[in-house]
């Protein structure tokens, strides 16, 4: 391998994703700009994972094997073995579009002061086509990102947490601690809250990745979804605020998160036939935000919960917000 440092190092931790890993690796190999390195951490010493990675005879692909140290531990191990000027977290069941390195690299070359370049992403179910709504829109970002404008702390506190795959200057990654954060907060939120305060962060409106929505996640333990919600809320709650506007932005973001959480809990309770739990969750949602959506669910729960179950088939119940939360729990965190 050449001693020259690549522009990009992709940090990938793989755990029980044998079915998806080949497509992810091949999406990196398909980059129109070949100036990259891929560090794959076999986060659990899986012979199948190792065999998949080593089958690609490319010196730019590095395999690291270790006992399962959780998702953040896998990313940290990848970063320790990465040599690129910019690091990019890439989960082992997601994909890149071929022009990711080319488009992101162009921004970095045009302005050497830029430290981080984020993107939008397509969403898709397993081997299905891209969904009409992209990632940023699915989390509530309404305006089109302007790459000429620096992302601010207020933006992040107000809920603009970019897609997790981004090119982060190595010095910036190290300065904010990468994904090495306390377990009670979500690392993918904390890193953005810290990056925007110290570094020049830009977001491209282009959808340059594919974010997999795995239907098998619906069968996972609901307590893990709740734990993820807790970590996201803790990430915002633990972030120091300096002004009244910042505090109000955090409060609004948390109110929205808790509202969506209550909506999800109401619907999940209905699926399980827990009418009283559904009523309590719907009441919380309506207290947080007096929306037509919350009012409708509350009214139906009070009048005829059985009817609500019938008029909301499973595919309709999986809303964008619910899907986003579940998928983050399923990011191969080794839990």
Automatic annotation (TrEMBL):
Keywords: Transferase. One of its GO terms (molecular function) is transferase activity. InterPro entries: Glyco_trans_2-like, Glycosyltransf_2, Nucleotide-diphossugar_trans. Residues 9-172 form the Glycosyltransferase 2-like domain. CDD domains: Glyco_tranf_GTA_type. It holds the Pfam family Glycos_transf_2. This is Glycosyltransferase family 2 protein. It comes from Antrihabitans stalactiti.
